UniProtKB/TrEMBL annotation, chains A, B:
Database matches in Gene3D superfamilies: 3.30.450.40, Winged helix-like DNA-binding domain superfamily/Winged helix DNA-binding domain
Xref: SMART domains: HTH_ICLR
PROSITE patterns from the UniProt entry: HTH_ICLR (PS51077), ICLR_ED (PS51078)
Record bears the keyword Nucleus: no
Protein name: IclR family transcriptional regulator
Source organism of the structure: Streptomyces xanthochromogenes
Keyword Hydrolase attached: no
Length: 260, 260
DNA sequence: AATGGGTGTTGCAGATGTTGCAACGCCGTC
DNA sequence: GACGGCGTTGCAACATCTGCAACACCCATT
């Protein structure tokens, strides 16, 4: 809508791929060098872009700070985190939390081997939307029309032989997930990794986030992983209750949570 | 420099403080509502801003994705290399760069007496994790629980009489390193070789790499080597600044590195 | 030393894009 | 049912942005 801003913002994803010099930026933006220079300068003044010693441009520190604040302001994450940690301590495997935003599904928290991480590993990264358990959960909650529209627009990469092959299969899978209230990814993204996931509901019943537990084949088989499903679902429900305010909101005594 | 972009970018820190509606944004920007609307729309299209259910605006999830992608594409070695060369040219001794990965500490760069070396000597090889200065620096940054777990699992080979003897001694050493912000290896790996090292920090404060300077006893004594510590630390700090994108606010002529 | 190609930078006139206004549609409240 | 608040749209006036061309600078080359 605003050409200047549009151009300026287009520089960011471009620089995310790696440092670039003025000429490269101008070229890939399709504008004159002087124009690119002014845009970069403005971005620089706001700290979103950093100029390294070889004069090339990179994303700057303020962007990281903003990203940090943005994630911290997501209150689902804040509420869910202790539950995720508790679950992780019991079952040991990696636990993820994800949300759906603007056509993407992003991991916003991760607990791995009793090692809570910020801005690390996959947090912030879009997930493989056609196969991930959390993605299925989040998309399954969309109104049917939108669900179909989204499914049609997606690509269906064949990560493994068990990846979702096409829109029809995906919609069928979503219907299943919607009905049963949980989801799996059994080797659909990486051959040797299985996931099980459950949805987190808001006060109005809509799915606001999804969580999953992942483990490699060599540690537990898919069947064994599925035996953990009740625990995962109970955790998701506990988070839902607290998030939607239906919970005994005892702000202290968090030990009373029933996500055992 | 560019008014439109400047205004648009000013919205981001504003929203970082919490969600705001159109009127608030317009007011705090000092522009007309319609102007603010257009800017917000542009930010929205780029995913930097998200519109929540009550129509208020928040920071968007793409911010993470960007920050995430940027850190992944950041190459410490590339950034550090010129600094290491500069330091080497001043002090002459061998300079190493190392990272922590999958339970190992690996040298990823080395500069030896005006001999910029890649794929040579120990680059890529695991270091003696219980004694090397860089290993101490990298392990000292781990959360306490993991630090202890790692220390318990290691072997403590007696390379020399001054090698770290056991887990308890190692943890004590790590605590010291953590506190003082630098590390040494005085004859712990090879009787006649001393090292001093300093950590390189990322934008989130965590230690992403470590560098060290090594010299044989016959060239400089341990005491003499320690006099170089300030230079080493300054170099590490300069690399940290550049790596984390902490821009000198002076838009122009910030001279250059202060790792002198 | 001098030349040349490669950068990034500046000033400027033209015109494109942006601005603020005023009016409209919408929704909840009084 | 009218009011007030809020977001949205179309438009004309204007300020801002654009691309050009020339310049400054650094480095490698001759």
């Amino acid at each position: 809508m605003s050409q200047t801003v549009d151009r300026a913002l287009s520089i960011l994803p471009l620089l995310a791929q790696g440092p670039a010099d003025l000429g490269q930026v101008a070229d890939r933006l399709g504008v004159h060098k002087s124009t690119a220079l002014r845009l970069l300068r403005t971005l620089h003044e706001h700290g979103l872009v950093y100029r390294q010693e070889d004069q090339r441009y990179r994303l700057g520190a303020r962007l990281f700070a903003l990203a940090q604040e943005a994630v911290e302001n997501l209150d689902v994450r804040e509420i869910a985190h202790p539950h995720l940690v508790a679950l992780n301590e019991r079952i040991g495997h990696t636990v993820h939390l994800a949300v759906h935003e603007e056509g993407e599904v992003l991991y916003i928290d991760k607990v791995e081997s009793r090692y809570p991480v910020r801005m690390y590993s996959r947090i912030g990264k879009p997930v493989a939307i056609t196969v991930a358990a959390v993605a299925k959960l989040l998309l399954a909650d969309l109104p049917e029309a939108e669900r179909r529209a989204v499914a049609e627009k997606l690509d269906y990469p064949t990560y493994t032989s068990r990846s979702t092959p096409n829109a029809a299969a995906f919609l069928t899978e979503l219907a299943t997930v919607r009905e049963q209230g949980w989801a799996t990814d059994l080797g659909g993204h990486e051959e040797s990794i299985n996931c099980i996931g459950a949805p987190i509901h808001g006060a109005d019943g809509r799915v606001v986030a999804a969580m999953s537990v992942s483990a490699p084949n060599v540690v537990v088989t898919a069947e064994e992983l599925l035996t953990l499903l009740p625990q995962v679902r109970r955790t998701a429900e506990a988070i839902s209750r607290e998030y939607s305010g239906t919970a005994p909101n005892t702000p202290s005594a968090q030990g009373s949570s029933d996500d055992r």
